[in-house]
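Request from the bench team (R.T.):
"We need a structural guess for the complex before ordering more zinc ion. Sequence and SMILES attached. Just send the tokens back."

Command: build protein-zinc ion structure.
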Amino acid sequence: MAGLVVRSTRSRGSFRLTLKFTLCKPTLLFGNKMRLDHTARKFGTLSEPPRFHVLPNQNRPKQEAQPARVYNDKIQVFSDVSNRYVDIPNVWLRDHCHCAKCFHEVTKQRIIETFDEIPEDVRIVEGTLTEQADTISMQWQDGHSSTFDKQWLVACGLRNRPRSSERLAVTRTRLWDGKSIKANPPSVQYDDIINSDTGVLEWLLKIKEYGFSYVDKCPPTPEASEALLKRIAFIRNTHYGGFYDFTADLASGDTAYTQLGIGAHTDNTYFSDPAGLQMFHILSHTNGSGGASQLVDGFSAAAELYEQDRDAYNILATTTVYSHASGGDDMSIQPYRAFPVLLHDSQDGSLVQVRWNTTDRATIDTPMESMSQWYSAARQWANILRKQEYWEQLQPGRPLVFDNWRVLHGRSAFTGNRRVCGGYINRDDWISRFRILNKGRSAVLDEVLRA
Ligand SMILES: [Zn+2]
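Reply to R.T.: structure attached below.
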């Protein structure tokens, strides 16, 4: 038997996973014989409740930065994990030389073949390790020279603070409900976005802050709408196609293409990686009425549930749910695993994604004896969503773009012919565009290529 046991323990406020691996027969590593201990991930087995919360904690105390130093032929940095100076292993230093021979100057990809070219016991030539005002430099046994920025080395020692704020591109987040947003929703001018990156940044900052933004004075054509979306990144293809332009019919085998009303939901729960952004642009609506659009701030709804009933919140954060898209004869798209309705960052515990689509919901991955608790938690959640709804009649010339990981959308039933265009953008692609515009490429890469 092979056993992989995952134990979650907490010490000094940090969350640790201990992996214990016992192997008898290597062949058992393959196929479905290798299993995680699934009871360990249910927090019922933990000694204290999980530290799930809605927004990232931006008020952690900043570590007092201690300078990097040369000590006993090693470079040392202050580690906030063990609260003392620690040696930087030579093999890591050599692997992180950022000179043009080791890292590609433009793509910042590693050129050096770490495991072929750097011996495990790689040595610094005696007497060559020297400290300058802002840098430390050395010569390696193979003749290569490296220079490291001291501030960068200092940052490499500080590992207690989760790097989540960088990965998640945390900026100001404003929670809203229908009442607070209706009078003054966020909006950006079409021309500003088309003509300048500053306009794109202004747009993305609003989407980061509110989870959505309108664009005003867009020509009511599919071409202008597509060009607008492509200012952020390329459009994601799905089984529906790429950029879409449709009128109500059932050609795509999904209720979204009918005249029925649709309750607040997020899209793509049937993908492992749901789309990050979605655009809707109503190009025309003739011979009928209805079809108002609704948005709900999922983070705001989560915050209300968090205050109202912490147990219900934790059930939606830990019980996983499967989903599927099986509208075509030859497909049944399913994610590689079930995900909770409220998905949290594994490092800092903050909410990163809402996955709520009761139309596409499949198995609720919990035993029958705890099923009613999930329904009760989900009902509380659904009631909060309804309470916080924001309704608006979308207009030609005013596309809407929203963060599908945060904001839920829906619409009321309608009559007549409605022509809508739009498309998806991947989460990683829009966050990449946002971070580069917001912080600059070199600041982003400094973070990527450190410890
Ligand atoms: Zn180098």
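Two things stood out. The chain has three domains: 3-45, 69-161, 178-439. The first helix runs from residue 90 to 95.
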